[in-house]
Amino acid sequence: MDRNGSIENVIIVGTGCAGLTAAIYAARANLSPLVLEGREPGGQLTTTTQVENFPGFPEGVDGPQLIMNMHRQAEKFGARFQYSEVDEFEPGTDYHRLKVDGEWLEAKSVIVASGASAKWLGLSNEKAMKGHGLTSCATCDGAFYRNVPVCVVGGGDTACEEAIFLTKFASQVYLIHRRDSFRASAILATRALNHPKITPIWNTAVTEYLPDDRGEMHGVKLKNLETKEESTLEVKCAFIAIGHTPNTAPFRSWLPTDKNGYLLKKDGSFTEIPGVFAAGDVVDPYYRQAVTAAGQGCMAAMDAERYLAHQDSPHHPQTA
Ligand code: NAP
Fold first, then answer.
1. Domain locations in the chain?
2. Which residue has the CA at smallest separation from atom 16 of ligand 1?
3. Intrachain domains 8-117+245-311 and 120-240 with the same fold
4. CB-based contacts of 54: which residues, under 8 Å, 6+ apart?
5. Cβ atoms of residues 129 and 211 within 8 Å
6. CATH number 3.50.50.60 given to 8-117+245-311
7. CA angle, 300 then 302 then 304, to 5°
8. Measuring from each residue's beta carbon to the nearest atom of ligand 1, which residues come in under 6 Å?
9. 43-57, 174-188, 303-317: lowest mean pLDDT where?
10. Closest CA to ligand 1's atom 29
C-alpha cells in the first residue's frame, strides 16, 4: 500500500538499467511506479567507469552518470523512489505484498529487476582487502594498476575478457584457474592464451590475500590443486571473475529459478505468477549488458501496463 493506504499500481524492485528503464516506461504510462533501491543502488553500472557500447554515446558515457540520468528521467515522469530492501514477498490474486523495513507494501503488479552481485572466493580477509587491491571489476579499477603485475581469478568469458582488458595497464596479468582448461568461449580463451602479457596458472586456487603493512595487496598465496604445492605470487591487485549470483532471495520460494538461481520467465517478461514480471541480470545469465537489461526493463513495464489495463477492464472476470 502507498502512504495513503491504497494499493500501488506497480512496484519496481531494483535501480540498475532494467529497473530504471522499467520506471521510465511505467511512469510515462501514468502508473506512478514506486521504485525500491536496494543495497547496491544503481546496480553494476555504478561500478564501471566508461561504458562504450551503450547506443547513442559514440564517445562513451560514464556508468554512474548514465544511471543518474536514467534516475532523473524516471523521476521527471513521476516515478517515486524509496531506499528500501525487500525482505519478504507474498504473491496474491488481486495484489502482491512486499515487506520492506518491517512494513508491508501492496501492489497490483511487481517488476523484479534486482540484478546480480559478483561472487567472491570467501577467504578470511576478503572484506578488509576489498578496495585495497581486491576487486571484481577490471573496468572500474584496472587503470589504477599501471606497470605492475596483477592477477585475474576465473576461467570463464569474464575472466578472459578482463585479463585482456588489463593488459592495457598492467605489466603482467596472471590468469589463475582452478582447472586445466577455460570455460570461456574459444575466441576469448585463444585471445587470452596468445597474449604475450597473459600467463595462465592452471589447476590452482588462491588461498590467501597477502597485504603489506599499509593493508594494500602485495601478493596472493596459491595452492596447486593437483600437486598440493603452495607458493606465493607477487601481484598488486587480484580481480575476482568467478561469476555472479542473482539477487532473488525474497522471491526464490515463489518463483522458479534455473540451477544457478536465475529467475525463469514464462513469456516476454511474465513469470509464473500473474502480475509479477522480471527483467535484467536477475533473469539473464548470458547477455548481461546494460542495453539488454534496459530492453528487458522496457518490456516488463509494457507487459505490466497491459496486464493492469486488462485487470481493470470491465470484461475482466474479477472486475466485471
Ligand atoms: P562463468 O561462465 O560462470 O565462469 C565462472 C568461472 O569462474 C568458471 O571458469 C569457474 O570455474 C570459475 N569459478 C567459479 N567459482 C569459483 C571459485 N569458487 N573458485 C575459483 N573459480 C571459480 O561466469 P562469467 O565468466 O562471468 O560469464 C557469465 C556469462 O556471461 C557466461 O554465459 C558468459 O558466456 C557470458 N559472458 C559473455 C561475454 C562475451 O561474450 N563477451 C563476456 C562476459 C560474460 P569452472 O570453469 O571450473 O566452473
1. 8-117+245-311, 120-240
2. 242
3. yes
4. 61, 66, 290, 291
5. yes
6. yes
7. 65
8. 121, 153-159, 161, 178-179, 183, 242-243, 285-286, 288
9. 43-57
10. 286
Label residue 210 exposed, middle or buried (CB < 10 Å: 0-12, 13-18, 19+): middle
What pTM does this model have? 0.79
> Residues with Cβ < 8 Å from 195, sequence gap 6 or more?
163, 164, 167, 173
Low-confidence winner among 54-58, 127-131, 278-282, 293-297 (lowest mean pLDDT): 127-131
Tell me, what's the pLDDT at 319?
Answer: 42
Residue with the smallest CA separation from ligand 1 atom 13 is 242
pLDDT in tens, 71-103: 999 999 999 999 999 999 999 999 999 999 999
**Over 50: is that where the pLDDT of 178 sits?**
yes
Pick the atom of ligand 1 nearest to 288's CA. 30
pLDDT tens track for 194-249 = 999 999 999 999 999 999 999 999 999 999 999 999 999 999 999 999 998 999 99
- The one catalytic residue in 17, 62, 94, 137 is 137
CA distance linking residue 198 with residue 194, whole number of Å: 8
141 has catalytic annotation:
yes
Q: Which of 2, 62, 101, 140 is catalytic?
A: 140
CA of 310 to the centre of ligand 1 (A): 41
CA distance 236 to 40: 26
| Atom 33, ligand 1: residue with shortest CA distance | 157
Mutational test site, ligand 1, from 53, 157, 226, max ligand atoms within 8 Å of CB: 157
CA 196/CA 175 separation, integer angstroms: 12
Mutate to test the pocket of ligand 1, among 121, 178, 282 (most ligand atoms within 8 A of CB): 178
pLDDT in tens, 265-309: 988 999 999 999 999 999 998 888 899 999 999 999 999 999 999
The pLDDT score that the predictor gives to residue 49 is 62
- Catalytic residue list contains 298: no
- Fold for 120-240, please state it: FAD/NAD(P)-binding domain (3.50.50)
